[in-house]
Amino acid sequence: MELIDTFFNWDILLRSFPILMRGLSNTVVLACCSIVLGTFAGLLLCLVRLYAPRPVQLLAVAYIDMFRALPILVLLILIYYALPFVGIRFSSFVSALLALSMVLAAFTAEVCRAGIQNVPVGQFEAAATLGMPFWLGMRKIILPQAVKVIIPPLTSNSIAVFKDTALASVVAMPDLLKQAQDAQALMANPTPLIGAAIIYLALLWPLVRVVGYLEARNQRLQMR
Question: For residues 113 and 154, what is the distance between their CA atoms, to the nearest angstrom?
């Protein structure tokens, strides 16, 4: 009974629910904005990595390698706490958005590169034979085929970004975790933290199953 009152106190959970919902809305907005921005930036970075002049390609490779190796938490702290020393200040939301998007762009670029390079060379030649300009052939022929390969890892990366939004609490952004921590301190009970964990699980577990389905479907298609 003491364990239940401490970690699963229904009365405290109900009282903290509005606070958690405010944090959840901020988390969802941050996650969606980061995923959209990071995905589009990653696709552009991939195309630069593959088809830009050699010096620009090397810059893209350097960016991809650096931001795949740099922990998001370190990048977030640098953006929020270090940049003000040179007169550049961002809000906690913008700082988290930049950190998450920059790292996601690097991972997305590699996923897209693998997908594009998985398309048979003959498809590129067919587009050229039809007289299509390079970018039109890329949009009409190459990318639609590459999407079939890259959707599962892109979905997996998006889930990772959603989970990493919890790091925004480090810069005092009122996301789901930060609101749960505040509610826990206010009510002197860890139940709000358990509530936040349940909300994360309820949102992300179905997405994890979707990724599993997409990966299995992709394997079946490749075996045909």
Answer: 12
Q: Is the dihedral of CA 176, 180, 182, 186 positive or negative?
A: positive
Q: Residue 179 is inside which H or E element, if any? A: helix 176-187
Residues present in the chain in total: 224
CA 9 – CA 12 distance, rounded (Å): 5
Residue 1 has pLDDT above 70, yes or no: no
Give the residue from 179, 204, 180 showing the smallest Cα distance to 31. Answer: 204
Q: How confident is the model at residue 224 (pLDDT cuts 50, 70, 90)?
A: low
Within 8 A by CB and 6+ apart from 201, the residues are: none
Question: From CA 222, how far away is CA 214, in angstroms rounded?
Answer: 12
pTM of the shown model: 0.90
As a dihedral over the C-alpha atoms of residue 107, residue 124, residue 48, residue 151, rounded to 10 degrees, the angle is -20
* Pairwise CA distance, residues 142 & 136, whole Å: 9
